[in-house]
Write a structure and sequence with these properties.
Layout lengths: L1 H10 L11 E2 L24 E2 L1 H11 L20 H42 L8 H21 L4 H22 L12
Antiparallel strand pairs: 1-2
Helix pairs in contact: 3-4, 3-5, 4-5
Length: 191
C-alpha cells in the first residue's frame, strides 16, 4: 500500500496536467471534471482508483486540430532487475573459459607439432631403425591424452579430437610403410 502511494506521489510530480488529477477514496465514487484535487492523507485510501472521465478531459484538452497529439505517459519507478549483474558475471565466466581453453588448445598444437617434427626427422633418416619409433610413440600417447582431456572438458568437439588423433596415427603409419617396417595386408576383392 505504501509502495503504491509512493509510486503515485512520484507520478504526480511530473510537470504536466496530471497534477490536476484526483484520486477517489473508493472505486464506486463518480468523478466529476470540476473536482481536481490531490489527497495528501494516505491513511484514508481503502483502494486507489483512476477516474476515466477525468483522463478523457485532460487528454482532449491537450490535443488541437492542427497539431499532432501530445503523448503523455505515467511512469512509476520499479525495482531494477539484476540483468546487468548476470550479464557481467557471464562476461567474467566467458573470459575465464576463453583463457583456459586457449591454454589447452595451445598445448594440443605444441604436442602435435613435436610429434610431426619427430616423424619428419625419422622419415628423412635413411638408416633409421624400427626401435626409433618408440620415443615417438610416447609423444603420440601424450598428445592423445591431452586431446582426450580437451574433448572431455568441452574445449574441442569430439570429431575434431578424433580427426587430430587420426592425423597423427596416419602420419606414423606412413613413416612405417616408407621404411618397410609395416606392410599392410593385401585387400582381396571378391567379385
Amino acid at each position: 500500500m505504501a509502495a503504491a502511494v509512493h509510486c503515485l506521489s512520484s507520478c504526480f510530480a511530473l510537470p504536466c496536467k496530471f497534477r490536476k488529477l484526483s484520486l477517489a477514496a473508493s472505486s464506486s465514487s463518480a468523478c466529476s471534471s470540476s473536482s481536481y484535487s490531490i489527497h495528501s492523507n494516505s491513511a484514508t485510501f481503502n483502494s486507489l482508483s483512476f477516474c476515466t472521465n477525468l483522463s478523457d478531459n485532460v487528454f482532449s484538452n491537450a490535443m488541437s486540430t492542427n497539431q499532432r497529439p501530445i503523448r503523455r505517459s505515467v511512469v512509476c519507478e520499479v525495482a531494477s532487475t539484476k540483468k546487468a549483474d548476470s550479464a557481467a558475471k557471464r562476461a567474467r565466466q566467458a573470459e575465464k573459459r576463453r583463457i583456459y581453453n586457449k591454454a589447452r588448445k595451445s598445448e594440443i598444437k605444441t604436442r602435435m607439432k613435436k610429434v610431426l617434427e619427430a616423424l619428419d626427422v625419422l622419415k628423412k633418416k635413411a638408416d633409421a631403425q624400427a626401435e626409433e619409433v618408440l620415443p615417438i610413440e610416447k609423444l603420440i600417447a601424450e598428445a592423445y591424452s591431452v586431446i582426450d582431456k580437451a574433448v572431455k572438458v568441452g574445449t574441442l568437439h569430439r570429431n575434431t579430437g578424433a580427426r587430430r588423433k587420426s592425423r597423427l596415427a596416419r602420419r606414423k603409419k606412413a613413416i612405417e610403410i616408407h621404411h618397410g617396417w609395416y606392410k599392410p595386408a593385401p585387400v582381396e576383392l571378391n567379385a
